[in-house]
Design goal:
The structure is a single chain. By secondary structure, the chain is an alpha/beta fold. α4 (69-78) packs across α5, α4 packs parallel to α9 and α6 (150-167) packs parallel to α7 (188-198). The protein is globular, with a radius of gyration of 23 Å. The chain is 26% helix and 26% strand. It has helices at 2-15, 26-34, 44-48, 69-78, 118-129, 150-167, 188-198, 269-278, 300-317; strands spanning 36-40, 83-89, 132-137, 173-175, 203-206, 216-218, 233-236, 239-242, 245-250, 285-290, 322-324, 330-345, 355-364, 367-374, 381-400, 409-412. The longest helix has 18 residues, at 150-167. α6 (150-167) links the parallel β3 and β4 (173-175). It binds beta-L-fucopyranose.
């Protein structure tokens, strides 16, 4: 009797979840360290001035004359991206690889006489340039007749997922987009098992209201911001798990696919920097949508903007004014007054996310002045404040869920 009770107590204890005990997987830690990725939309929509194809486009329209995935990858790298996610199939159902399970694909296009494979070209270019590679495979399919039969469609989706998971090397992330799927029931358990079988290190991305098992959660908007208070551990249906946020936003406002004459929608450098600070600077991942045009090349203006963005991030955060080992409070003293306008804080995520509240102070003259404060830190927190001429900077964690492990603290002068 006593042994049964002890056993039951053990079981219950094992099931009770404590927020502060939840840790990321090694794959999630590595993924969060990448901070920036790109998401490439390309397909029949590109040639038809469309965002959401209805599945009736003739594959004959897909005919890029200068497709060069190396050019996409070079631009992504210049922007600071560490991975690229290729949209292998968007909602229109047109497949950018020669899938064995449909003929609605590049096989029936004039491009490379139907012998081409865009997913392969993107993957190979990523491997050559050291970017990690991921794939987006839209669950919503407006072309395939199997979509109206849940079971048959699951077979189709899983067969395509298997092709993509077994023929294109290691995938860092697999995107399940929730758009358009209202009312459709997917066998997500089967999808997750399939991915785990062939690619146990790939992280599944989805909105939590679409697929509860996501390893990476959608941040909840496409405008490029995370909330100031951003926790990695999120409860979903009573289950606590590490679910870091990914914020996807297109480089051209509102356009995931390329459209002619839409250069005016290109986000400005200032907008991109604001997005960077509200995503990466709040411990979330930034994924920028980039879109090759009907030549198969990223437009020159887009390449230039990506280069400017990467250069500005490097200018601001490439070299700190000073760093200090973590302590509470942690303090950095300068030999004389220095102009300071930003601080970067990071938690060592291997020990979980603990910080609930902190403040940053600067020593100006003979006074300590509060220059910033915030709630969560997580992977990274960038605090930008009015410049001060300080002889020291101090960071103090005021409240935490458990023992805090910060990485070294870095102070910057963005005006240099
Ligand atoms: C959305 C889609 O509907 C858009 O077309 C785009 O693919 C974006 C990344 O996700 O849900």
């Amino acid at each position: 009797m006593r042994r049964t009770l002890a056993f039951l107590l053990c079981v219950c204890a094992a099931q009770a979840q404590n927020f502060a005990d939840i840790r990321p997987s090694p794959q999630q830690i590595a993924w969060q360290e990448m901070e920036i990725g790109v998401l490439v939309h390309f397909g029949t929509n590109t040639f038809l001035d469309r965002e959401w194809g209805d599945g009736t486009a003739d594959p004959a329209v897909f005919n890029p004359k200068q497709l060069d995935a190396e050019q996409w990858v070079r631009a992504a790298k210049a922007a600071g991206a560490k991975y690229l996610i290729m949209v292998a199939k968007h909602h229109d159902g047109f497949c950018l690889w020669p899938s064995r399970h449909t003929d609605y694909s590049v096989k029936r296009s004039p491009w490379k006489q139907g012998k081409g494979d865009v997913v392969r070209e993107a993957e190979q270019a990523c491997r050559r340039h050291g970017l990690a590679f991921g794939i987006y495979l839209s669950p919503w399919d407006r072309h395939d007749p199997r979509y109206s039969d849940n079971r048959k469609y699951d077979d189709y989706y899983v067969a395509q997922m298997t092709e993509l998971a077994t023929q294109y090397g290691p995938l860092v992330e697999f995107w399940l987009d929730g758009a358009g799927s209202e009312g459709h029931v997917y066998d997500f358990v089967r999808y997750v098992r399939t991915m785990r079988t062939y690619q146990p290190n790939a992280l599944l991305f989805a909105s939590l209201d679409f697929m509860p098992y996501a390893d990476i959660r959608w941040v909840g908007n496409e405008s490029g911001f995370a909330h100031e208070e951003n926790w990695n551990v999120v409860d979903n249906y009573g289950i606590l798990r590490w679910r870091p946020a990914e914020a996807d936003t297109p480089l051209r406002d509102g356009h995931w696919f390329w459209h002619p004459n839409s250069e005016k929608r290109l986000k400005t450098l200032e907008e991109l920097m604001e997005i960077y600070h509200k995503t990466v600077g709040r411990g979330a991942q930034l994924v920028l949508g980039i879109a090759p045009d009907d030549r198969g090349l990223l437009p020159e203006a887009d390449v230039k903007r990506l280069e400017e963005f990467g250069a500005e991030v490097r200018r601001l955060y490439g070299k700190p004014l000073a760093t200090a080992p973590a302590a509470n409070p942690a303090s950095i003293a300068f030999p004389g007054p220095r102009r300071v306008d930003r601080v970067v804080l990071q938690e060592d995520l291997a020990h979980g996310q603990m910080v609930r509240r902190f403040r940053v102070e600067a020593r100006v003259g003979d006074r300590w002045v509060e220059v910033s404060r915030g709630t969560t830190i997580g992977h990274k927190r960038i605090l930008v404040f009015e410049p001060v001429n300080a002889t020291a900077v101090r960071v103090e964690v005021e409240a935490a869920m458990g023992p805090v492990r910060l990485k070294p603290i870095a102070v910057y002068d963005g005006g240099r």
